[in-house]
Amino acid sequence: MSLEPAAALEALLFATPEPLPPERLAELLPTLSGEEISAALASLRARYASPASGLMLDEVAGGLRLATRPEAAEALARLAIVRPSRLSRPALETLAIIAYRQPITKAEVEAIRGVNIDGVLRTLGERGLIRVLGRKREAGRPMLYGTSRAFLEYFGFQDLSELPTLREIEALVAPSQASRPAEDLPREESERAAPAADPAAGPAAALPAGFASDPVPEGSE
Amino acid sequence: MVYQVRLEQFEGPLDLLLHLIRIHEVDIADIPIARITEEYFRVLTEMQDLDLTVAGEFLVMAATLVYIKSKMLLPPAEGEEAAIEEEDPRRPLVEALLEYQRFKTVAGDLAGFEERRRRIFGRVAPLEEAPARGPLELSLFDLLGAFQDVLKRAARRPDAEVTPRPFRVRERMVELLERLALERPLGFLGLFPADADRRTVIATFVALLELLRQGVVRVRQASPFGEILIYPLEDA
């Protein structure tokens, strides 16, 4: 006896630890046509849009999976699920710079932050939030860093274009309120808002001409 | 040690400067450099006992401030106002401050996204170990587990009836390296042809372990339960 397409899809989205991109779903459900998968997906979307379920369709990093609804967070707190700790301020700043300026070398990040980032870079690498995209063609062939798929997942982005817009500060006027909400901020710097690199593409594809990519970059630090 | 605590509120010299600019409510586009330099040095003196690298970064900034201050003291070159404005010695610093502030702000945004995502729980992947620097980038148990599967497959066919010549591990090592020269990475399962008998399979596996031990190859698994791949170690 065979499972209904939506049921098979639901089972996959329930069991997968990482979001499954549409292409992968097609591979995993070889007996179903593209239309059948789309229809199954639509029915699941409708089903999980309802607050009657504790689960929702989590569409993140270009993929899909089932996850708990944010409203369930308090109920789940008592389960005491162990998760990675929150990122430190230096880690977040470093990650922000890498995300917007990738591919970028360590020295370039340090120039912006004004401090050494060796330790932070190691932490971010260990947590899989950044990856080596290749090496820059300049003296010393420094490594070029970029964000990973895990980065998108961690912050809940579909792709890099969903990063918040980099904006000018209004320190000129009201120095003490640099962290107020975006709506209040007058100017936006749109040309730098969306890094072009496609997170799903391989390292080589994301690199502009002039960068040599490293076939096995990890661990060669 | 009181100073250590004080420093930790600042991510670096730029952060400290932004803080000073904020608390003294000065215009970032027109920083009163003498006053800010004075304030900066006052904090620096309080931070004397600090960690050297950190202090080093703060000192470089101190030097920059003094340099800018001295430039500002020079009489403006003759010429038009516009030319003078273009040469404002504070400009590179202001740009660096604005650039840093942008990322500082966006880091705050990221913290917000992080917080929101922490309310959502998904299935957790089996713990992934941080990629090791050594030749083995998956646990030995994973590798042995994969080998068990291969052995099970090989067990189904009887050993060759004709007395086979002894399988020398060294021979398999050479073969493995030759294949790696042509194809990299090599898939683990691809090492063991479906028709290979048990002895060949074992010799090949021992050859792989020996190459790992010698640090000639490395083995990694891109994702949990993913295919195990064998790479030649980059010539160091």
In short:
The complex is a heterodimer of chains A (221) and B (236). With 221 residues, chain A is of the alpha+beta class.
Give structural notes.
The complex is a heterodimer of chains A (221) and B (236). Chain A has 221 residues and is of the alpha+beta class. Chain A has helices spanning 5-15, 22-28, 34-49, 73-77, 89-101, 106-113, 118-126, 149-155, 203-206, and strands at 55-60, 63-68, 104-105, 130-136, 143-147, 211-212. Chain A has a 4-stranded antiparallel β-sheet with strand order 3-5-4-6. In chain A, helix 1 packs across helix 3 and helix 5 (89-101) packs across helix 7 (118-126). A 4-stranded mixed β-sheet of chain B has the order 1-3-4-2. Chain B folds into 2 domains: 2-117, no CATH class; 136-232, Arc Repressor Mutant, subunit A. In chain B, helix 3 packs antiparallel against helix 4 (52-73) and helix 7 (140-155) runs antiparallel to helix 9 (198-213).
Name the features.
heterodimer, A: 221 residues, alpha+beta, Arc Repressor Mutant, subunit A, 2 domains, 4-stranded antiparallel sheet, two-stranded antiparallel sheet, 9 helices, elongated, disordered C terminus, B: 236 residues, mainly alpha, 4-stranded mixed sheet
Biggest sheet of chain A: strands side by side, in what order? 3-5-4-6
For the terminal residues of chain B, how far apart are their CA atoms?
Answer: 43 Å
Question: What's the gyration radius of chain A in Å?
Answer: 21 Å
What general form of chain B does the structure show? Answer: elongated
| Major beta sheet summary of chain A | 4 strands, antiparallel
**Silhouette of chain A:** elongated
The total beta strand count of chain A reads: 6
Percent of sequence in beta strands of chain A = 5-15%
Q: Can you tell me the residue ranges of chain B where pLDDT is under 50 for at least 5 consecutive residues?
A: 1-5
Structural class of chain A: alpha+beta
Oligomer: heterodimer
CA distance, first residue to last residue of chain A? 52 Å
Task: Label the structural class of chain B.
Answer: mainly alpha
- Radius of gyration of chain B, rounded? 32 Å
Low-confidence stretches of chain A: 169-221
Question: Structurally, how many domains make up the residues of chain B?
Answer: 2
The CATH C-level name of the largest domain in chain A is Mainly Alpha
